[in-house]
Structure formats: structure tokens, C-alpha cells
Amino acid sequence: MFRCHRKDKYGLNMQAICDHRLRFIWYEMAWPAATSDYMAFCTSALYFALEANDTTKKILKGFTFVGDNAYVKKMYMAVPFKGIRSGSEDAYNFYLSQLRITIERAFGVLVHRWAILRAPLTIPIEKVAPMMESLIRLHNFCINEGEAEVRTLQTKNVAYLEDTVSYAQKWAGKESDMVGVDEEGRPTSGLDECNHFADAPTWRFDRDLIDMKTPMDRMLRKVRTKGLARP
Fold first, then answer.
1. Does an H or E element contain 48, and which?
2. Of 121, 130, 136, 140, whose CB is crowded by the most CB atoms within 10 A?
3. How many CB atoms are located within 10 Å of the residue 84 CB?
4. Are 99 and 77 in contact (CB under 8 A)?
């Protein structure tokens, strides 16, 4: 259960939300890596709070989270259209991706900031979640205090990372690579490999939304009204 077949690695499923400054405002690590993102989200306390948003007021009316195809259209969630290659839906997908890339950048900066995350962890599994919470809190603190962008700091200790990877490989008895980060600060191991379409099959949708206009519907209508297209 702890082996993710898509990435061929062992680990935990981490769900997270960030703001426009790449600060994490919510995260949860409660499931092994083989768990689908949709299942991990649907069993979180945040999911149930959002489902009862009229009472909990977790998100303001008219606002929405932006997710990938691991999730489904909700009053509080805008997701891409599947299998679309042209038209206004394709344009919507493009502009949505420009928002969704923020969380990828947040993870990239987090990994780039803390070298321990760029190699296989060698700590007991029960310590992984507390360690991640500590690193996330420190990550947010660094941003709040105005630390320079991680990509502008020439402090990457490659030799240290290679030694850590070598130790982890010896400890695990198998080959494993360091996590790479591209020029946008995103973890390259997660780009173009995390196809979550199977997590949210086409038959799964919220029937209560059939006659309701969601933020996602309004976003699509804006794209159509302004005649926007994919560059």
C-alpha cells in the first residue's frame, strides 16, 4: 500500500493547498502512497467542512479552489475538462493550469529549500508527517520574513545530496534518484507523470450541481465572453 505504482516509489500521500505566495495553508498526510488523491481528499476533515460550507464558512461564496483531474467539479472546486483539445473548454484548461501551477511551484520551492527532501528519507515512517509539518511551518516562516527566492540562492550542496542518496540506496538496497527541480522551481519527477484521470472516472459527479452555476461554470463563461484562446 505504501508503494505508488505511478512513480514506482514508496511513501505517503500528501494533500496540500497553498496561496499565491506559495505558502501552505493546509496539508494532510494520512494515507499511504497507493491511495488515490480523490480518496485521500474525500476522507479529510477539510472535505467534510467544505461539503457543509453553508454552516462552516470555510470558503467565501463565489471563490473556489483549483485542482487537477484527481478531483471533481464542486461549488468549491474548479477542475480541468478531460479529453478536450480545442474550443473554449481547451482555453479554460490552459488558463486554469496557470493557476494550478502555483501548488507545483510551492512543492518545488519546499523541496529546493530543504535538502533532506531531495533524497529518499531514512527516518521511521511515523516521523515523516511530523517532519513535514515542521518543514512546512519553517517554509511559511521564511516566506513571511521575506527570504530571497530559493532559486536565487547559490547554496545547493550537491555533494551532500549525492552522499545522502548513496546512503539511502545502500539502506534500501535499491537505486533511487534525487528529486530534480526545473527552472520554474517545480519538482520534475511530478511533472507530466501524475495523470490522475483514473482517480475521478467520468461517471462520478455531484448530481446536486446539475442545475446550479458553480465558480467553474462562471470561469468558463468568462473565457467564452472574452473570446480567450490558448496562446
1. helix 45-51
2. 136
3. 13
4. no
Question: Cell triple for residue 207?
Answer: 448530481
CB atoms within 10 A of CB 145: 7
Whole-number Cα distances in Å, 39 to 13, 72, 120: 10, 12, 25
pLDDT tens, position by position, 46-83: 999 999 999 999 999 889 999 998 899 999 999 999 88
What backbone torsions phi and psi does residue 139 show, to the nearest 5 degrees? -60, -50
Query: 39, 31, 36, 27: which is closest to 12 by C-alpha?
Result: 31
Closest CA to 167 of 118, 127, 121: 121
Per-residue pLDDT reduced to its tens digit, 172-204: 555 555 555 555 555 555 554 444 444 444 444
Full DSSP string of 73-134: -BTTEE-PPTT--SHHHHHHHHHHHHHHHHHHHHHHHHHHH-GGGGS---S-GGGHHHHHHH
